[in-house]
Specification:
Blueprint lengths: L47 E13 L9 E5 L5 E5 L5 E5 L2 E6 L3 E16 L8 E13 L7 H12 L12 E6 L9 E5 L18 E12 L5 H18 L8 E8 L3 E2 L2 H18 L11 E2 L9 H20 L6
Helix pairs in contact: 2-4
């Protein structure tokens, strides 16, 4: 039975886009008749939004083992949101930015950049409240804080000397591909109503008081090559280090899932939306924090915290140092 809730809907709602094509309907929404829109190209059309107060992420920390040790972590509140017009047509989706602390290195920034989206929201319908498709790209780079570390500073200086793109900013970030679960040829993946059915979430990762909930699953693909062997090898070493510190959250072949628990619908401030990503990035760069407050630590189902193995991180750092000594310093850093 469909549940309708009107009281928390702000003025101006017209609706109708979800019902404009029979193929959009549940149980299997087909949105392929809609073009994939560039995520920041239609900000002026936004009128309404639903913020994700509780972005609950989950992934396997030891994929392939008999006990893969699934982790659960809530990223910072309101790190994501979905934006649409008064009819309910989706025009923009904001996705996560997060700082990951790597012992001995400092903070690495990770951003899930939405490159395309399409879909609908039906505000009054609490049961079938949304359906959307997305394409995203992961990006990883050293934060300014990390660049003060002697090790990272040495790397930055070495790469700058030869004009190689060391990942010291988002513009030079390591780029990670993503695709639909078990379908590497399909970069478009769905965002659908309800919690994921792929696994059970612990009580600390559930928020039944939310206005609504959707789920997303995306499989992590390989790094995008730069066509420079030195840079590509270095970037893979950094990715290995990042995954050791984060519990393999962006390990190639791993499935990253998240339940997005929405707050009540609200109206959009277009300028605030347009500058959202930059403000978040500035906040992470300055103090490794998020402007809306911290999330939670990564935990296993029973609540036990995930702790990266320091000895493995130290080994990977030494591997990077040895590689730099042999291939960069010893070879005179030839581009």
């Amino acid at each position: 039975m469909t549940t309708i809730q009107i009281s928390t809907i702000p003025p101006g709602w017209i609706g109708g886009f979800a019902q404009s094509n029979p193929q959009f309907a549940y149980p299997n929404p087909n949105l392929s008749s809609l073009p994939m829109l560039e995520n920041m190209a239609n900000i002026d059309l936004l009128k309404r939004q639903q913020g994700v107060e509780w972005p609950e992420f989950s992934w396997e920390t030891e994929k392939g083992n008999p006990d893969p040790k699934r982790c659960f972590q809530m990223f910072s509140p309101y790190i994501s949101r979905i934006g649409y017009d008064d009819s309910g047509r989706v025009y923009s989706i904001i996705c996560p930015q997060q700082g990951i602390w790597i012992p001995g290195i400092g903070c690495l920034n990770v951003e899930v950049t939405v490159t395309g989206q399409r879909g609908w929201v039906d505000e009054p319908n609490k049961e079938y409240n949304l359906a959307a498709d997305m394409t995203v790209e992961g990006k990883i780079w050293f934060s300014p804080g990390a660049n003060q570390n002697w090790f990272v500073k040495m790397l930055w200086n070495l790469f700058n000397t030869s004009n190689l793109p060391f990942p010291s900013s988002k513009a030079k970030a390591i780029r990670v591909t993503t695709h639909q679960f078990q379908n590497p040829d399909q970069p478009i993946f769905p965002v659908r109503k309800g919690e994921t059915t792929l696994f059970k979430s612990p009580d600390f990762a559930r928020h039944p008081e939310a206005y609504g909930v959707g789920n997303v699953e995306v499989e992590i693909g390989p790094i995008i090559k730069t066509n420079n062997e030195i840079v590509d090898t270095f970037n893979q070493l950094v990715m290995d280090l990042f995954n050791l510190g984060s519990g393999n959250i962006l390990q190639s072949g791993n499935l990253l899932s998240w339940n997005v628990w929405f707050t009540d619908p609200a109206l959009v401030d277009v300028e605030e939306w347009r500058t959202h990503a930059e403000r978040w990035r500035d906040s992470i760069d300055e103090d490794h924090g998020s402007p809306t407050g911290p999330g939670t630590i990564a935990r296993y189902f029973d609540g036990t915290p995930f702790n990266p193995a320091k000895e493995l991180i130290d080994e990977k750092i030494q591997e990077i140092i040895d590689w730099i000594t042999k291939h960069l310093i010893g070879a005179g850093l030839r581009a």
